[in-house]
From TrEMBL:
Keywords, ordered alphabetically: ATP-binding, Helicase, Hydrolase, Nucleotide-binding
Transmembrane residue ranges: none
Annotated protein name in UniProt: DNA helicase
Tree of life domain: Bacteria
GO biological-process terms attached to the record: recombinational repair
Molecular function in Gene Ontology: 3'-5' DNA helicase activity; ATP binding; DNA binding; hydrolase activity
NCBIfam families with a match to the protein in the record: HelD_BACSU (NF041464)
Domain UvrD-like helicase ATP-binding intervals: 197-595
Keyword Hydrolase: yes
Any matching Pfam family: UvrD-helicase
GO cellular component: cytosol
Amino acid sequence: MGKRQHPDFQEEVERLTFTKKYMEMVIQASELDEETFKKNAKESLEGIDLKDSSLSYLNMSMNANLLQRTQEEIRNLKKIYNKPYFARINFLRDGKEVEEILYFGKASLFDRETQDPIIVDWRSPIANLYYDGRLGEVNYEAEGECYEGNLSLKRQYIIEDGELQEIRDVDLTTTDELLQESLAGSSSNRLTDIVTTIQEEQNRIIRADLNKPIIVQGAAGSGKTTIALHRISYFIYTYAEQFRPEQLMILAPNNLFIDYISDVLPELGVDRILQTTLIDYVKGCIGKKVQLVPPSEKLSKFIDGSLNNAEMVQWISSFKGSLELKDIINRYLEDVLQSIVPRGDFYLSKFKLYSGERVEKLIVEQYNYLPYYRRLEKVGEVLKNIVRTEKKILLQKVDKFYEDKIEEALFKLKLDPAKRKSYVTKAMDKKDELMEEIQKESRTAVRAYLKQVAKHDLYHYFDELFTSRSVLKKYASDILDDYQINFFCDYQGKLRTKRKFEVEDLASLLYLQHHLFGVPKELRARNVVIDEAQDYSYFQLYALKSALNTDMFTIVGDLAQGIHSYRGINDWHLVKEEIFPRATYTTLQKSYRTTVEIMQVANEVLALLPLDLPKVEPVVRHGTRPVFYEWANEAEAVELVLAEISRLYDDGMKTIAIIGKTEKESVKLEKLMSKYGNGVYNTQLLRENEEINQEDVVIVHSQLAKGLEFDAVLLWSVDEVYSLNEIELKLLYVAMTRPLHRLTLFGHSPSVFLLEHVGEGLVEYK
Ligand SMILES: Nc1ncnc2c1ncn2[C@@H]1O[C@H](COP(=O)(O)OP(=O)(O)OP(=O)(O)O)[C@@H](O)[C@H]1O
């Protein structure tokens, strides 16, 4: 059927026109409301009644809320005006006679008089029928109730610039048509929203119980990042009343990645959420400079074999991320806690105001929900209050005591006049002295009492535990042997001399910071999304959970891409059992990014990994086989690369990346391109804190390419070859799974990409 020959096409054009008109009207009316609210705000500010401020403030804040909501409504409607909806369903509820016709879009719009929905938000419960339901008998849940009925139509719309281009009815056979088209499109170096084509398995994750953590092991290109972002959007929609977007946080692997996902969040109606990296987050929590050894340095050294004592360095990296280290720190913290309990009772002058035992109880038990140093502050506050109230009573008592004595001397005791005089003077002096002492000490007693506790900064504690062999041994002797303890302390000692930390240390730093000093309120997110979570360590996840005091995490990752597995996670079940016992664990096996031909080759590399992961199933989309070009010298290699880039552009590829194995290799590739490339194509050597320039051919190393995607990828090996060890296999797998459409390999022999392990006929050799 031709594009516009659908029998309902005209009717749908009319519906679209109506919807747009209605939106215009609502926008206009809301803009008028906006003016009124603004005027009200101005008037209530001018006429603020200082005597009756509570009522005025109440009015003002109500008005401000209305203004904010109206502005948001206007913003949302304007945003979707050119594409108000993308799908429709016809649903006959059981027991009803008239079908509901519902249009789904990225925001909702209701008829202002009847409250009937004109557009239904894709995140509303009933939208499940579109994503989940086949035609026929279906049901959906809303607010704990299950609604059943019959779904007779699922229709998709292609609307561009506010004009209806095409409509498609989705039945059992054609469900994937729009998905196919959307995947066949071009990558813009930017992640996009997928609300129109969210698949059933993805929808389940987006809408999985929002009150529980979720762990997703997803194949390369299965939509993990995309889904995690859609889940945030769904969360904010569902809990709009309880959560502000600022209370949500995304932890991304680097700033390049944050830039890569930055377009999709506003598209999904989520823009004020905290987006950061683990490194920046921990720095923010500590509030100090943390000088890190460049995180990729160790990986590069592992790869090029330049590490001394690699086995022990590997051990130390994984130990720093283990929950055993957390146990050791816990033991140490118990002693730290004892060390901050002031010794002895609290006195004001010679009067005991509070027993040491009670102070200890406050610190160890009563305030155990607070960081240690906050507990001390609290004790300070308690003692100050006591001083404030007790001081008056004490002064009165002292006054009375000496006045009684004086009176006795003057009127009751039989003393000779000289003695009496001296007695009275002494008593008066003593009284003055004591009262003055009480007055004076009342200002200093608390400070003096707490001063006995030696205070230190975070690094002191970190160093004390990790660089002193005797201290570490005290807490770790049943976990580590002497050789390990000595190695650990020496290793940390060297880092301390350089005043540096490793990325692996972030877990301990955050954990100690949380227990000793606490994390700033604005950084205590209530819901967290972690992407590329396979690169985190168990302890990092544990420390984050403790510091944030919530287990509301969405954790997505792929063990097959765990290039930092020497320090990261190897087993999601351990994460679930030991850190997030309430979590739901789920897997995504389908890849939406890559063509069947490319995925077949990547799957062969995956099979070489010592991991128990099933093959990735590409969504059926065919392309050309990956091609291998053999070169004899560097100049020839560049020539071949340039010719391929030209072909790729001719074939309509928009974003192209050349991926080198390591950072060093990609620097070399950039040099070769500028030496022999005659400036035919602009290249951009990608670094961590850069934005991708879409027009340029991007040169990037495999580790940094993780998470990104391009229309076409050229793997180019000059000096560096991929070998069969686990890290390098993972790097190769990551690199091979970046393209949407085309993969070309350049090397001086097929074995540099381990192609001898790839089944015959899967790669074309030139
Ligand atoms: N349901 C879908 N409809 C359309 N496109 C989709 C769908 N799911 C995923 N995609 C696309 O597939 C590509 C891969 O998605 P994404 O980057 O989220 O995957 P990932 O699992 O995070 O990948 P990786 O682990 O390799 O980084 C993106 O271009 C995304 O837009």
